[in-house]
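Regression test attached.
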Amino acid sequence: MRAVERNESVIWRRRAPKAELVRFAGWFALATLTVFCFQVMTRDTVWSFLLDAHIQAADLGSRMFPPNWGYIDKLWWPLWETLNIATLGTFLAILFGVPVAFLAARNTTPSTTFVRPVAMFFIVASRSINSIIWALVLVSIIGPGALAGIIAIALRSIGFIGKLLYEAIEEIDTAQVEAIRATGASRAQVLVYGIWPQVRPAFAGISVFRWDINIRESTVLGLVGGGGIGLQLQASLNVLAWPQVTLIFLVILLTVVISEWVSAKVRHAYI
Amino acid sequence: MNGAGQPIRWSAPPLIANAWLRRSLIAGTVIYVMLALASLDVNWQRLAEGVPRAIRFVSAFFPPDFISRWSDIEAGLLESLTMTLTSTVVGIGLSVPIGVGAARNVAPRWVYFFCRSIIAASRSFQEIIVAIILVALVGFGPLAGFLTLSFATIGFLAKLLAEDIEAIDPSAPEAIRATGASYLQWLNYGIQPQIMPRLIGLSMYRLDINFRESAVIGIVGAGGIGATLNTAIDRYEFDSAAAILLIIIAIVMLSEYSSSWIRRKVQ
């Protein structure tokens, strides 16, 4: 019954009473679970520290402003390094990600039973771990510096490029591939003339999109020693030089906005 | 046309049709890569030292050590998971009104601009930077992480929700309005049913993202499994680190599959 009779008049309801009850129980369970999780999460929290949070905020604000504009001279080189980490990392990721995508796509992989699961595992493992965690691991292995940052960015991006590209490859039009094959083309020629032209716009879009994300991520890799402007951020945070931190935040914000604008422009041109 | 009997060479059309633009882009890229590589300062000696460490790190995966630091791992994991759920729920709770306010077709002009600027602020600051500030304000621990992720959820969810509301079929809300419904009734019966499947899908997706992010913000002191991982690596306990990485991969895979399953179900 979707309508309920009450006081001799019929009132419309969206759901039957039973469905209503089930939904209510679901929402109630979610709310209970959330409250429970919140309590577990904050069992070690000292709430009295929070009472003066607004005073802390005002204090922090007064320390952070005005930004230390003079510090910008020391930021040009780290900024260049950040750009390099993101760009070289993206190139490296394309170098490895494209073959992985072709090995993972159902219609181009040499073997669905052996090669495809391995390629899929690489994609999933690369995607599950954020580049800053890759950087954390790499810095402890090969030492701090831009190289660790580049490899960290590349390791995270391989999975991203691999996943989106293999999905694009699986969605291609088979008629063109068959037409190329009918001319007597070899496997490699089919790949180059039948498949690649179809996924090229997607490839360009994915690469530029990932480059944009990588610029964003490479700005903070320095926090764990991965080079770039994050290194300056970490140094400034360690000595509580808040006016410098503010300037770095502003520079990062500007960089991110510009890279997003560039990537949106390029993607509009191709897709 | 070539002369008779001459084979015609065909080549695929390039991605960028304008030849000069294409050549200058290629030249620019080559020059840039050379400059970038030249400014890359690689310490080869340190790199050579890294080889045995890399071997140690890789061999730490066979087998990883779940046991000796299990209590730390468990605590970190519990923080990450609780942080993920609470921040997603609170984040969605905040995103829905902001998302409705940021949709041009349902909100007045000034509310629209106000909500859009909240979204822009949330989107332009990365989680790590927000976490640094919040750790400075509320202290170390998962509460800072919870606040960070809730704030970050707004930028993602409210933006996509607003875009969804702007793209709905206007005839249903118009029909509801014609019955003389109030503004809230209009939202509830005209708009909400149309966007609900997508809202559930996006929420599931955000839950997945929030778990991944909760593993990251621990590095700057906001609690969670990231903090445990950071400690393990600082102590060069690669076998514990390997165990943590495997746990993260497993949970991300699980949440990705279940979230895509739920999304397929509701859409």
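Expected vs. actual: identical. Chain A has eleven helices and two strands.
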